[in-house]
Amino acid sequence: MSGDLRRLSDIDATVRLGGTTLILPHRDVADGPVEIAVRPEAIQLSQASAATMPGRVRRAVFLGDHAEYTVETAIGDLFIVDRNADRLTEIGADVHLSFTASGVAVLPPPS
User: Fold this and answer.
1) Starting from the edge strand earliest in sequence, which strands make up the sheet with 12-17, in order?
2) What ranges do the domains of the chain cover?
3) Residue 59 pLDDT > 80, yes or no?
């Protein structure tokens, strides 16, 4: 996915991803357009807040020890693996997504 990076310190930066702002290690990537690599387990269904991304569940499957979702967002469809699912969120449900600190990485834009 694509985002826009602005350094905050020698380590951290804000990254705009759609209408959501994340604080991530910048990994010496320059300010400006960047790519963001996100593991499916690093996206969580959350309560609404300024740091979440709204979406709508398009696909939901419970597979015994985890649930898998496809969620439609402003930046496209995101695939999510929820290993803590105690119940399945229904298809069509409006949800909010948050991103964990691990499993999300800033990459330089493609040349």
Assistant:
1) 20-25, 12-17, 2-7, 32-38, 104-107
2) 2-107
3) yes
